[in-house]
């Protein structure tokens, strides 16, 4: 046998777990001719499958009863095709197969076997094999199946299998008179709904070593579903699924509904849309303590729904419980955060320059004022020295007159340190000096200092103009590091999301996971965000919808109508924080449409979905769904940068500070006059000039 296989270059992988396979099966097999006819039929079927050219290998699973069919003579008649051969014991429970059988099934799935020949005498054993293979995805349900007809395969508890395994041919032996044996080839009635009793549909007859009708045994049954109605469970989630209202009627729309309508028109089926009974509380659904699932996921697991729409992401949970189509887009998932309440309008005067710039300006002011003072004192001292050496000016009176004359040349501006700083500060404010000072060094320094002042003032004015002309800058959270440092609580839907953050590879993500709260009501989450103590996690489009919905009390998204009613409590919400969407994305998650587990509709639906994306229909539908939201989300303050009293708050604060300091100094002067000057024994209110002359002489 092995030599014949090698000569045909047939790759035969044999996994034997027979147990009692060595029992005498001659007592069981009484009708040898039946087995010979079955052998010829299997040869024709294998050749028919192999001729299609899309089979990586063929998996054969049989028991000792039919083991003699697969002898060397069979392989002499086959085309070259690799085999994975599995023999199971008659007593083996295939709902919990032993290790060797399990490994063989895994190997067949890994090798990509496109055809399964399950030739088992015990129909109950075959049903348990199919149940196990479907539950743990060890059998490729979209492959081609050839099985022996057995009434035990069609009981009501197994009807769900025949909504998944549709490319199947059942072989039923008929012993006609005069030894004219023949086989009836039938299949499941897909896409027709299975009622209480499953009745197979005949597709071919095999007699006298040939097929009678020469029909395509494995025609694609999903190309035309003949108007069959499929149940579609949906969850409202903008922009994937949107409930719209037109007058009194309610309609379900959105990107995924448009995609489904297009696929339905091509595959010829109808949609029956409905929501799960616990959609408001459980949303997409999660695993319950009793092992079942709630929400949308529960409808898919129990088989109530054929398709699920509602922004399903490529996560481990969804991939395990359902079949997801190819992604039609990738969404940015981030946080909806509050903006800071702090208003920096009072700092308008100091905003044009940063801290270090202000320090540099102050240092230059003090240093330059001191230099002016030093140069002025030097010139005054020089003039005094010249006056003392003059022969015709020896008296003290002439000295005083000379000092007044020299100081009158502009040096009195900088003769005292306080006046020097004051006039230096005045030049910084582009205030001209009352008189040009004498002394070329002071004049040159004044000229260059004026150039410095012009450059500084122009820069300050330009920056000030930009600050007053542009909207007030917002203090926002835009990175994960800023979110962690803000100490506010984070939250979102589902235990899976919290697990995603806790299992993050970076410390920032783990910190977010530690403070992550599970919240199922997005409206309640937004109320916490506006209070400034919460950040809500979802995709950017949905967060934009929540922001618009918060801004408007009632929003109805429709392609033709949009009814918006302003919030009647806007007066109460003015002090609430604005909502901001983080610019950094936590992750870009692929989004798909969900089919029930091992659905036969997925391959062809993926083809149409890929075409929809390639021609740009998704972009068009997405823009239509988000157009009204994007229009309402425009911030008026970002468009109209008008001057108002709030922006000039800094000027009024500066004026108030000047009033306050002047008042304090004025009160101090009055106190000094009444409590110090008037209490002096030498004070004479009728001769105050003499009092000050005598006082100056003492100093």
Question: Can you describe what's shown?
Answer:
Among the domains are: 2-211, Rossmann fold, CATH 3.40.50; 347-469, no CATH class; 649-698, no CATH class. 42% of the residues lie in helices and 18% in strands. It has 24 helices and 23 strands. The strands form four sheets. Strands 10, 13, 14, 15, 16, 17, 18, 19, 22 and 23 form a ten-stranded mixed β-sheet that branches. The chain has a nine-stranded mixed β-sheet with strand order 1-3-2-4-5-6-7-8-9, sandwiched between helices.
Explain the layout of strands and helices.
Blueprint: H1 2-7, E1 12-17, H2 32-50, E2 58-62, H3 72-76, E3 83-88, H4 99-111, E4 115-119, H5 123-135, E5 144-148, E6 168-175, E7 181-187, E8 201-207, E9 210-211, E10 228-234, E11 242-246, E12 249-253, H6 255-267, E13 269-274, H7 279-282, H8 295-301, E14 307-313, H9 316-321, E15 323-324, E16 329-338, H10 355-389, H11 396-407, H12 417-428, H13 440-469, H14 480-486, E17 489-492, H15 495-502, H16 507-514, E18 516-518, H17 522-530, E19 534-539, H18 540-551, E20 552-556, E21 563-566, H19 570-573, E22 579-581, E23 587-595, H20 602-614, H21 617-632, H22 636-639, H23 649-677, H24 688-698
Parallel strand pairs: 1-3, 2-3, 2-4, 4-5, 5-6, 10-13, 10-14, 17-18, 17-19
Antiparallel strand pairs: 6-7, 7-8, 8-9, 11-12, 14-23, 15-23, 16-19, 16-22, 16-23, 20-21
Domain Ionotropic glutamate receptor L-glutamate and glycine-binding: 239-302
GO cellular component, one term: plasma membrane
Family: Belongs to the glutamate-gated ion channel (TC 1.A.10.1) family.
